[in-house]
């Protein structure tokens, strides 16, 4: 595995920090305008900033996810693997998921362009 460059590490950490703070505008600055983002609990993808804004707004009215990067690794072809600890609760605090997963990113023009999820 290649050592991650500081700009990619900063990009990844900024995205997760904004997500956890529920700051959609800050998160979108790390995303390519045509980003493909998985709808983890529904299947399929949303595309672009407007669809992500709508998806996250709806999601955060139903569940409370918190996602913390554990490690960031470079894969082949510029793909970035981020192992995360993910805690998802309902709005009353009941735990729905607590564990590790891998978020797999494609980066384009120094922005996150696609994310996929793999079980850790």
UniProtKB/TrEMBL annotation:
It comes from the Bacteria. Transmembrane segments: none annotated. InterPro entries: NTF2-like_dom_sf, SnoaL-like. Residues 15-111 form the SnoaL-like domain. SUPFAM superfamilies: NTF2-like (SSF54427). This is SnoaL-like domain-containing protein. It comes from Fluviicola taffensis (strain DSM 16823 / NCIMB 13979 / RW262).
